[in-house]
Amino acid sequence: MAKTIEEKQYLVRYKADKKSHLTILNQEECAKCEGQVCTLFCPGEVYKWEGDRMFVGYEGCHECGSCRIGCPSDNIKWEYPLGGHGIVFRLA
């Protein structure tokens, strides 16, 4: 039986560091971006546009790297979390 994306995401756990491994380099670039596309293609819904700022909920990052290649302004600095932190997969 095929699983929905929500069911698959339920299998993912995170061990978040206290410091983000994702950085918005320039908030003004995000403000100029039409549609803030990172809020659409990030499977972890890490990026949220609120008011006039982009907020990053790095704790739910799937570490897929789509944000670093999908940002039209190359405005997101993506690094791996420090060792022992980040995404933890559970088997079904």
UniProtKB/TrEMBL annotation:
Keywords: Electron transport, Iron, Iron-sulfur, Metal-binding, Nitrogen fixation, Transport
GO molecular function, one term: iron-sulfur cluster binding
Domain of life: Bacteria
Family annotation (PROSITE patterns): 4FE4S_FER_1, 4FE4S_FER_2
InterPro entries from the UniProt entry: 4Fe4S_Fe-S-bd (IPR017896), 4Fe4S_Fe_S_CS (IPR017900), ETF-QO/FixX_C (IPR007859), Fd_FixX (IPR012206)
Pfam families: Fer4_ETF_QO (PF05187)
Start and end residues of each 4Fe-4S ferredoxin-type domain: 20-51, 52-81
Family label: To ferredoxins from P.putida and C.tartarivorum, ferredoxin I from A.vinelandii, ferredoxin II from D.desulfuricans.
Function: Could be a 3Fe-4S cluster-containing protein.
Name of the protein: Ferredoxin-like protein
Organism annotation: Anaerobacillus alkalilacustris
Lineage: Bacteria, Bacillati, Bacillota, Bacilli, Bacillales
